[in-house]
């Protein structure tokens, strides 16, 4: 049975109804999965006309003509199976900031991404590298392409030289409590999309999260990223001991005692967190693995930076090469306390 609304009710409903932009912004902020975030971002771009900006390749911030030319050259060479030309194109153009591709202003305009031309070029380059690396041995050794043949040794040299020139990406997790709360979410989103680098660098609180991620294999990470594989009992036990509490809920008095305890610690020692609690937490989750042992187990590279004394000092980088026998727990403790 339909109910007729009065003019006043219609006016009130129209007035209280959320603007579509505000609605999608709220969904964007509270998205719990990349797919939800992407859907909200695409709707926002459509509502605000930013999809037109993405479709238009021209911009003063990067050399769009160069990118267009190289994109067309890659497409033609791939279509003609000209592997030698593909190798030459990648050798000459596989640099991180080709034509100013990494200018921040190209990535701060739209919610969902940058220019479609840039995204298409990056996709084309990635697919080209994949084509060359998966080229069958028979085709590499014997089948002549338009641009000549590629032997297995030529493929190996190409991949090695390209990797050396392009470098390897690392996920850097910064310090600070606010950043620390976001680190696991960022790592989880990258992992689920297959984009998590094998090199993870941590500084400050980020060193703890970096170690939790870097010591686990691909099969173990889902449980860790869901929170099931993280042991936080060290914090709960110390809080109850300090406040003389059991499992009763926190009160104003207990929170006040915690605040005063941290302020006294900061005035005496220069930091808020109880380092011994953090060390217990790290040891409960990481154990006494050295950098080399962690690398041999997970094949992920854990980097932890430690600041040197005095102003202008160069930070020390600890990993399985520079400090293979150092226990990563001690390195993380030293990094957080500085």
UniProtKB/TrEMBL annotation:
SUPFAM superfamilies in UniProt: FabD/lysophospholipase-like
Alphabetized InterPro entries for the sequence: Acyl_Trfase/lysoPLipase, NTE, PNPLA_dom, Triacylglycerol_lipase_N
Protein name: Patatin-like serine hydrolase
Superkingdom per UniProt: Eukaryota
MF terms in GO: triacylglycerol lipase activity
PROSITE patterns in the record: PNPLA (PS51635)
Keywords: Hydrolase, Lipid degradation, Lipid metabolism
Domain PNPLA positions: 171-338
Native species: Cordyceps javanica
Function comment: Probable lipid hydrolase.
Entry's Gene Ontology BP terms: lipid catabolic process; triglyceride metabolic process
């Amino acid at each position: 049975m339909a109910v007729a609304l009065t003019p006043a009710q219609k006016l009130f409903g129209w007035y209280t109804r959320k603007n579509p932009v505000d609605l999608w912004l709220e969904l964007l902020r509270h998205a719990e999965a990349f797919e939800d975030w992407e859907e909200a971002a695409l709707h926002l771009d459509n509502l605000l006309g930013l999809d037109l900006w993405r479709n238009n390749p021209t911009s003063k911030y990067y050399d769009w003509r160069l990118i267009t030319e190289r994109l067309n050259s890659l497409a033609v060479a791939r279509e003609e199976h000209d592997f030698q030309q593909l190798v030459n194109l990648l050798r000459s153009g596989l640099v991180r900031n080709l034509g100013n591709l990494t200018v921040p202003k190209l990535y701060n305009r739209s919610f969902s991404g940058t220019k479609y031309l840039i995204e298409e070029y990056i996709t084309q380059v990635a697919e080209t590298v994949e084509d060359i690396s998966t080229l069958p041995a028979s085709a590499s050794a014997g089948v002549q392409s338009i641009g000549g043949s590629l032997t297995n040794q030529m493929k190996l040299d190409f991949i090695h030289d390209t990797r050396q020139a392009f470098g390897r990406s690392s996920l850097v997790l910064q310090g600070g409590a606010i950043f620390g709360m976001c680190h696991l979410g960022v790592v989880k989103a990258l992992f689920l999309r297959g984009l998590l680098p094998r090199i993870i660098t941590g500084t400050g609180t980020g060193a703890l999260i970096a170690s939790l991620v870097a010591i686990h294999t691909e099969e173990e990470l889902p449980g860790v990223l869901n929170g099931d594989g993280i042991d936080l009992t060290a914090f709960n036990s110390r809080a109850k001991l300090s406040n003389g509490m059991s499992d009763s809920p926190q009160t104003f008095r207990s929170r006040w005692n915690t605040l005063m305890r941290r302020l006294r610690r900061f005035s005496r020692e220069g930091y808020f967190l109880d380092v011994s609690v953090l060390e217990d937490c790290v040891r409960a989750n990481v154990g006494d693995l050295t950098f080399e042992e962690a690398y041999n187990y997970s094949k992920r590279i854990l980097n932890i930076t430690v600041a040197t004394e005095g102003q202008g000092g160069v930070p020390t980088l600890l990993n399985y090469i520079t400090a293979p026998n150092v226990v990563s727990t001690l390195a993380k403790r030293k990094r957080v306390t500085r």
